[in-house]
Design a protein that fits this description.
With 635 residues, the chain is α+β, with helices and mostly antiparallel strands. It contains 18 helices and 24 strands. Strand 1 and strand 2 (62-67) form a beta hairpin. It is flat.
Length: 635
Amino acid sequence: MPQTPPASAPAIQLLDDRLVSQIAAGEVVERPASVVKELVENAVDAGATAIEVRLEEGGIKRIVVSDNGSGIPKESLVLALTRHATSKIHSLNDLESVMSFGFRGEALASIASVSDMRVVSRTADEDRAWAIASKNGRTASADTITPAAGDKGTRIEVSDLFYLTPARRKFLKSPATEQAHVIAQIERVALANPHIDFRVFAGGKPVLNLPAALTEGRVFAVMPREFKGACRQVAADMPGLHLEGWTGLPTAAKSRTDSQYFFVNGRFLRDRVLQHAVKTAYADVLHGASQPLYCLMLTIDPTRVDVNVHPQKSEVRFRDAQLVHQFVAKALAAALAAGAVVEEGAGCVVREPVSIAPSGTAFPARPFAGHASAGSGSYAAGNFARPKPEPARDIEGWLALYGGAHTASAPAPRAPAAALETPTQAALDVAPAAAAERGHCGRLGRPIAQIGGIYVLAENERGLVVVDMHAAHERVTYEKLKAKKDLGMDRTVLLVPSTFRVSDEEMAAFEEHRDTLADFGLEVSAAGENALMVRALPAILAHECADTAQLVRSVLDDLAKFGTSSLTEEMRNACLATMACHGSVRAHRRLTMGEMEALLRQMEETDRIDQCNHGRPTWLELTLEDLDKLFLRGR
């Protein structure tokens, strides 16, 4: 049979400008929320102090964004709707230190290519507003500019989104769903810009009103209601980096990630390095599938981060990802480790907000185009020291009242020491003299009773403290074990070394991070081309690690992605947590007053004492006001 001759190769040709814009729109415009994001961010860049958004059918039919910013001059209106035209950058140096949002110069042109658009704008120098319109995806021209009514600022109307690309329009969800995405997008911008007034109307009815406020007020207005009563304040500095915001307590964790906000130089991101840093910080207090709530703002020298790696600018690339990861993880871990929380209603409240090396100033507002960048300022060197416990207070009166029969009795017999010197119930035993010499009650108060063999009751200056004695002692024991093991990473040499094949990427990661593996207690060496040999493991993992090869592969994967790994530490801590659980005071054991006193004082000196190793609260407080409410006093 005669063979069919091959078809000739298609000719290469330039794409039509309209098609080019529609293709570019696919990178920028996904749904109505994408349009709102671009327009609102442009308004922020223009220095607006009030932004209003109006929606019809969730933004599918109509979107109107109005602002009182600097406006667009008449002679720049055509360029504003032209691709690759922007006022934000002029050179590569500007791009490397950009702090503005809409610097690509594609948003308006992309939106106009898939919808009908009308722009009305007026600058402070003009005596009237000017309008320009783009219909059917056609490029606007100077002869379409007409006089219009309008105050200083810009008003952009987008109609019939995706009607020019029906294949994409059918992927949109219901108006209610699209509206919810728009609201979420505006809330993200509003969190980073608390000095701006935001209002949203849907179908002519107000659905969101966020007046200008301090950062704290804006955060609590946007975050879930329970967050205000269950969070810790964060503030940390090191040269070139500043982190501040609020991070939620484990008791306020949710199953969803919709209340997780991380901003870098005012830009909302879902960055894997930052997400992993948060996960690392919560590893010791939050378990299972629970997701923490947080609103965190990182300011970094803009030359140390590349924001031009994603069309929607939702991802960045850090010049030193490992440094950023460690900075964020340590700052959050320190915030979660310190401070006092108490129960108020359905949630916990921070009575004394925690500050880690505070900068002394509020989070700086993201500068607009033409202002000094955040990287031009000075940064104070900081550390992550935990605040010292409160000074001792005199409690001779209650010792005389409560100490008699209890503290005079013989202490409970000591349990035999556990393996690896695990602290046991005996850690709570104190001699009567030791309790009397301490002579203070601290922030958790003085012990007064034990209920059901499970809870310790104490009285402090504010009211009643209730302690879950096993959960609290479990945390105390766990932190002591970690401190002991942190003094050194003991190794156990394997009787038979484990040899396994690795990929080219894993081998490259090994060559780059072999010293880091040694710091983790892993003795690993090359065993030929694309093969590794494990000769030793951290001692505490030697009998717990069933798959040595998978452990090393996972650590190498973390090192390649984040420059660090917490896997061996997490496995070690899991072992220590089990030991702490079995080595802590058990429920239904009768405690003497001296033992209860010792437990309260140890709690005050222990990191992360507010939650046990499983994320449950260890204590709560009922103030006198809370007790008055329970008994209807004052009514």
